[in-house]
Specification:
The chain is built from three helices and two strands. It has 349 residues and is mainly alpha-helical.
């Protein structure tokens, strides 16, 4: 269909003029747009050449072909990754050295405390053993001295009793002898003063004298018997007391020996408990040391893993930005190709 109305002499001139004016305006606009597109095409061609040159240098390790931003980003990422790795290694090494030093210090401290407690326990044990031995020796010596003193006292008492009895018997004998002599002198005096001359009277006096002598001897024998009985009783009493003293001393010695045995048993128990305590302390020290080592190893591994993760994250971010730049370059190339097609189409028209 025609856009112009047909009249008798052909197309209507007014719509034709309007259309011509519109076409002229459109042509001017297209020419201006063509100039702008040519300028943009030139600029994009230059940009494309620069980008292609940069892309051609992508194999270089400095990443300069990707542009200053990408090169700086990747170089910074690599440097940061290296620094983080080195820092992680240094921190891990410092941590291990610190833990080892702390472990050595704590081990030495535990060993020192253990040795101090061991020495103190040994000193206490030695002191207890020495005190127990001294006390036992003192008790035994005291018991022996007491027994010796008791035996000596019993022997002295027995000797005293024997001497006393002997003295009493001697005194009795002396007294009886004096009495006998006095009686004899008295009889002789009576015989001399009265002048008994008859044999019958003399016989009577002799009988009286014999009777007195017999009575005196009987008294002396009785006194001797009583003295011997008293001596025997006192001797038996002294022997009994001595035996009791000896039995008491023996009992004291037995008790002291039992006390010494009990003390030795307590010392052995103390030594056993000390040994168990030492073993327990040594086991605890070893467990603490092993726990510190495990903790240090885990912390070192964790720090290394963290540093590696941070470095990997930086590399991923750098690669992502590089991919974004590559996409932008690809988009630019596509855009340029499209512009070239448009320009080519315009030039054909």
């Amino acid at each position: 269909d025609s856009r112009f109305e047909i009249v008798r002499r052909g197309y209507d001139p007014q719509p034709v003029e309007r259309e011509l004016k519109a076409l002229s305006a459109e042509l001017v606009r297209l020419k201006e747009q063509n100039a702008e597109l040519q300028a943009e095409t030139l600029r994009l061609n230059q940009r494309l050449q620069e980008t292609e040159q940069e892309l051609g240098l992508r194999t270089q390790p400095s990443y300069s072909a990707l542009g200053a931003k990408a090169s700086a980003l990747l170089s910074t990422a690599e440097q940061v990754a290296l620094e983080l790795g080195e820092k992680a290694r240094q921190e891990s090494q410092e941590l291990v050295e610190s833990v080892e030093a702390e472990l050595l210090t704590k081990t030495e401290e535990v060993e020192r405390r253990y040795q101090e407690q061991l020495d103190a326990a040994e000193r206490r044990s030695a002191r207890r053993i020495s005190e127990a031995s001294i006390e036992a020796d003192q008790l035994i010596a005291k018991a022996e001295r007491s027994a010796t003193a008791l035996v000596s006292a019993a022997e002295v008492e027995a000797g005293r009793l024997r001497g006393q009895v002997a003295t009493e018997i001697a005194a009795m004998r002396t007294t009886a002898k004096r009495e006998l002599e006095a009686r004899q002198q008295e009889l002789e005096a009576r015989f001399a003063s009265k002048e008994y001359l008859l044999s019958a009277d003399i016989s009577v006096e002799d009988k009286v004298r014999e009777k007195l002598v017999a009575e005196l001897e009987a008294q002396i024998a009785q006194r001797r018997k009583e003295a011997e009985a008293e001596y025997l009783a006192k001797h038996n009493e002294a022997v009994l007391q001595t035996q009791q003293y000896l039995e008491s001393a023996q009992k004291d010695i037995t008790d002291l020996k039992q006390a010494a045995k009990t003390l030795r048993l307590e010392v052995e128990t103390l030594e056993l408990e000390t040994s168990k305590t030492q073993s327990r302390m040594l086991t605890e020290a070893r467990e603490k040391a092993e726990a510190l080592v495990r903790s240090a190893e885990l912390e070192a591994v964790a720090m290394g893993s963290k540093a590696q993760a941070e470095a990997a994250e930086l590399v991923r971010n750098a690669k992502a930005e590089l991919a974004e730049l590559e996409n932008k370059v690809l988009s630019s190339k596509t855009y340029l190709e499209n512009l070239r097609s448009v320009v080519a189409d315009l030039e054909k028209e």
